[in-house]
Amino acid sequence: MEINLIRKSGKFNFEAENSGGKTVELDANPKIGGEGKGFRPMEMLLVGLGGCSGIDVVNVLTKQKEPLDDIKIKINATRKDEEMPPIFDVIDIHFNLYGDLNVQKVERALALTFEKYCSVSNILGRSATIKFSYTIHN
Amino acid sequence: MEINLIRKSGKFNFEAENSGGKTVELDANPKIGGEGKGFRPMEMLLVGLGGCSGIDVVNVLTKQKEPLDDIKIKINATRKDEEMPPIFDVIDIHFNLYGDLNVQKVERALALTFEKYCSVSNILGRSATIKFSYTIHN
């Protein structure tokens, strides 16, 4: 897995590119001069967590032949601002699941995702409390 | 810090949005049906590491009044493929620094970044070996 970053403008605005040519812009905290030109680096970790767990939930529900029509994910995180560096404290991740879904299968899919499959959750969960919840919309 | 994700197309292609309205697309590993429509979630962690450490290096060198003309960052990572989940094993991050820079000040900036300032490095370094290196181009 390879990522390349170049500075795009100003002091803190970077562009990151993966090996498939996809790009995303980053920028610093406004406190040190960031100008809102991209994602903050710590936001990228939450994006990774949402993508990783979302993909795993979709994958497990699909294998269970559950009729998942759509999925939306909301993540809120707090940081340990009194520590240096200010790493994440609590990460809340909520899954909105659309379809005529079986509650037990949804709970099984979420348990498998967070206890077994999701690499990003495993990594971030070593230093933060990750809380997950769900709502089924049918 | 809040991130929202929606499913954009197919089963595994998500779009993530931060509170400033910036978006980035994600996609799954081709092994489970990903189609290369976005960054892989684990790539997002490397993007965050590059951005976080790059911003901190720029910030420290700027405070030191070092003449940093440009910066490029390359990251390569291996995963513990024999484990479940396959988290990162070794992450190599190389800084290409452009300008008439003082070696001692560059080394001090990198040490401060990885030992003190960079939240993402602190988080990922709990489960992976992070190796950093640099080349000064002047």
TrEMBL record, chains A, B:
It comes from the Bacteria. InterPro entries: KH_dom-like_a/b, OsmC/Ohr_fam, OsmC/Ohrsf. SUPFAM superfamilies: OsmC-like (SSF82784). This is Contig113, whole genome shotgun sequence. PANTHER family: PROTEIN YHFA.
